From TrEMBL:
Pfam families: Dynamin_M (PF01031), Dynamin_N (PF00350)
Protein species of origin: Oidiodendron maius (strain Zn)
Keywords assigned by UniProt, alphabetized: GTP-binding, Nucleotide-binding
Record SMART domains: DYNc (SM00053)
GO molecular function: GTP binding; GTPase activity; microtubule binding
Protein name: GED domain-containing protein
Domain Dynamin-type G: residue ranges: 38-322
Highest taxon, organism lineage: Eukaryota
Keyword Nucleotide-binding: yes
């Protein structure tokens, strides 16, 4: 820190106009209140390739002697913050980069240097370079930012930023890491929507090869906030093609920016080092005598550049102010929401229980709405997560389960011979057709084998009464797996819903603790209960099949009748082949033949009857199972009463230890709440300042 009494920066006085003072004061006040750390504020940034003369431009604009040389110059960002104040003061600080350790940050934050005159700047930059660890040669560039704040009654309120030059490639001591670091650092400033970009291009190199032009176009495609600046025009051979190229560029013909181009002639530090006082005079003479005199006068020379920047800066601030107010308002809303989720400070158990009780009231109300399918609350509107609408999501999953078990619930599928041949060609790609595939005859034969294996004392031609149950248990083998998957799927959905709801109502830390110490253990017990209920639903089928459904008899007889009909039609067609009529005697003879054939296959008849009875019972049991699993194994143990699991009554029953684990606050939470309060105060002050400016009479 130091005094600014001996500092006179006349160049900067020319950057301000009477019209823009009030508006610049608004931005400066916002910056002084710390708003620049929260939202982007208007500023002038000077950037270009290495050795493009940008530091010389910035010195000419501001009068501040930035370090310059033909090789490696600027090695870190330097922010010159000027503000009007009754007292003259200078503050020097280093803002550590994000890559610094805690110890390094503390050391850099403790950096100080005293400035008494402009001659002290050279030593300031050397001290800052050493503090950032750039003097040892291990590092060439730094993410740290040197901040020089000038306060005084005559200072124009604005911010200027000098950035390291963009590097084309890793050469010599400049590594690939240096190239990446510089590009990322410059991009951070370029991408700020309220920064005015002064894109500096050196006439000593081909403009098309200078990276800054492409980078400026990337972040500001229409050039609305980019002003191109050409330096070192005196190095071009008079009348040469290169000179004509740069005159065309300065005329905004080659690379077009809405703000246009400007040409300045800086001093040659090797030949004119001792002629600093003659800088503006020599520049004026050059533009009077060179071919650059063909350009409009207001686009050449440092004096006109200051005038252009004054207008550009004013227009940029005036244009961005409404957007700035919008950004501030958005951030205020976000912080208010975060504070609401954090809840009040809670050091005692009573405060912690009160916090959880208030939170549980909202939880119970919204959770109850979700279970019942009432979606009026804002929670159901703010996001597209399907789990938020819990009832709809679960009902849809129940329908998917019913459809899935009808397609994949049978261990084998029965189809006719023609269908089986067709099915074999697509079975590899049909996801719905899983399990074995058999014709009816093959299924009957398999049932006959099982009949012989389980034969008891039943009469010939009659199946063992237990055969239907054994066939059913084989046929319905996939039920258990499919139902378990469905239960787990619904349970995961419910847990996801709980997480979404808690994150909506409170901060992530409290949400995680409520889930970990309270709700997840409860939900795991619900899952176990659901699985036990499923076991009960499956256990009934381990016994002899039992049903009172009248459709069982009808469905069990239909396959046999259909088979007899098909067989009869087949034999009649064979009998009347070549003839148009068939007699009653022919039909009697066919029927007798069919009876004779059947009498010779008593085991197959018994197996067929058992198979048909099993298929009929399967349809009856399947319909009942697809209803029972959702209602008895899911809705009852998992979904019903979900809103009561974290209701005020549940909070009242919590042990003190659980309450402390969930609602207790560590030092980090306290610091977070304090930081939010500080940020909110800064933003609210910024909003108030902007509104005060809006009420002032505006100059047209």
């Amino acid at each position: 820190m130091g005094t600014a009494e001996s500092f006179e920066l006349p160049s900067l006085q020319k950057l301000q106009s009477v019209e823009q003072l009030d508006l610049l004061d608004v931005v400066d006040t916002l910056r002084a209140r710390g708003l620049s750390d929260l939202v982007a504020l208007p500023q002038l940034i000077v950037c270009g390739d290495q050795s493009s003369g940008k530091s010389s431009v910035l010195e000419a604009i501001s009068g501040i002697p930035f370090p310059r040389q033909e090789t490696l110059c600027t090695r870190f960002a330097t922010e010159v913050i000027l503000r009007r104040a009754a007292m003259t003061e200078i503050k020097i600080s280093i803002h550590p980069g994000n890559d610094r350790s805690t110890l390094e940050r503390d050391e850099l934050l403790g950096f100080h240097h005293e400035l008494k005159s402009t001659n002290d700047f050279e030593q300031l930059f050397k001290s800052a370079t050493a503090a950032m660890g750039l003097s040892s040669g291990i590092k060439s560039f730094s993410n740290d930012v040197l901040r020089i704040e000038f306060s005084g009654p005559s200072q124009p309120p604005l911010t200027l930023v000098d950035l390291p030059g963009l590097i084309h490639s890793a050469i010599g001591q400049q590594t690939s890491q240096d190239v990446t670091l510089v590009h990322n650092l410059v991009s951070t400033y370029l991408e700020s929507p309220r920064s005015i970009i002064l894109a500096v291009v050196s006439a000593k190199s081909d403009a098309s090869n200078q990276i800054i032009l492409s980078r400026a176009k990337e972040v500001d495609g229409h050039g609305l906030r980019t002003l191109g600046i050409i330096t070192k025009p005196d190095t071009l051979e008079r009348g040469s093609a290169s000179e004509q190229e740069y005159i065309a560029l300065a005329s905004n013909e080659k690379v077009k920016f809405s703000l246009g181009w400007h040409v300045v002639r800086n001093l040659d530090m090797e030949k004119e080092k001792n002629q600093l006082g003659m800088r503006d005079t020599r520049e004026t003479l050059f533009f009077k005598e060179s071919n650059f005199s063909s350009l409009p006068p207001h686009t050449v020379g440092i004096a006109f550049l200051r005038t252009r920047l004054s207008k550009v800066l004013f227009d940029q601030i005036r244009t961005e102010l409404p957007k700035l107010v919008e950004d501030i308002t958005t951030k205020i809303v976000a912080i208010n929401l975060t504070q609401s989720k954090l809840g009040p400070s809670r050091a005692t158990v009573d405060e912690q229980r009160s916090f959880l009780t208030s939170l549980s009231e909202s939880f119970q109300r919204i959770c109850g709405d979700a279970v019942r399918g009432h979606y009026e609350d804002r929670f159901f509107q703010v996001d597209t997560d399907p789990e938020r609408r819990l009832c709809a999501c679960i009902i849809n999953k129940h329908f998917e389960f019913a459809d899935n078990i009808r397609k994949k619930g049978s261990y084998w599928k029965i189809q006719d011979n023609e269908a089986q041949e067709t099915e074999r060609t697509k079975v590899a790609t049909d996801e719905c057709c899983t399990g074995l595939r058999q014709t009816r005859e093959e299924a009957i034969q398999a049932a006959c084998t099982l009949l012989k294996h389980s034969r008891g004392r039943e009469l010939p031609g009659l199946p063992n009464p237990l055969l239907v149950g054994e066939l059913f248990r084989q046929y319905s083998r996939p039920w258990s797996r499919l139902a378990q998957c469905h239960i787990r799927n619904v349970w995961d959905t419910a847990v996801k819903f709980l997480e979404l709801l808690l994150k909506y109502l409170t901060d992530d830390d409290t949400c995680e603790k409520i889930l970990k110490f309270w709700l997840i253990p409860i939900m795991e017990e619900k899952l176990k209960l659901a699985y036990r209920k499923l076991d009960e639903l499956l256990e009934v089928h381990q016994d002899y099949p039992l049903t009172t459904n009248i459709h069982f008899i009808k469905n069990s007889q239909k396959p046999r009748l259909d088979h007899v009909k098909v067989e009869l039609e087949r034999r009649i067609k064979e009998e009347i082949a070549g003839s148009q009529t068939v007699s009653i005697q022919d039909i009697s003879r066919i029927m007798s033949a069919m009876e004779s054939t059947s009498s010779l296959k008593m085991d197959l008849m018994a197996a067929e009857e058992a198979l048909d009875n099993m298929n009929s019972f399967y349809e009856v049991a399947l319909n009942l199972f697809t209803d029972n699993v959702p209602t008895l194994a899911i809705q009852a143990p998992i979904i019903k009463g979900l809103s009561k699991e974290f209701a005020p009554t549940a909070v009242f029953s919590m042990d003190l230890d659980i309450i402390k684990k969930i609602a207790g606050e560590d030092e980090g939470k306290t610091l977070e709440r304090e930081a939010l309060a500080r940020r909110l105060e800064i933003l609210q002050n910024g909003a108030r300042i902007c509104k005060q400016y809006e009420k002032r009479p505006q100059t047209c």
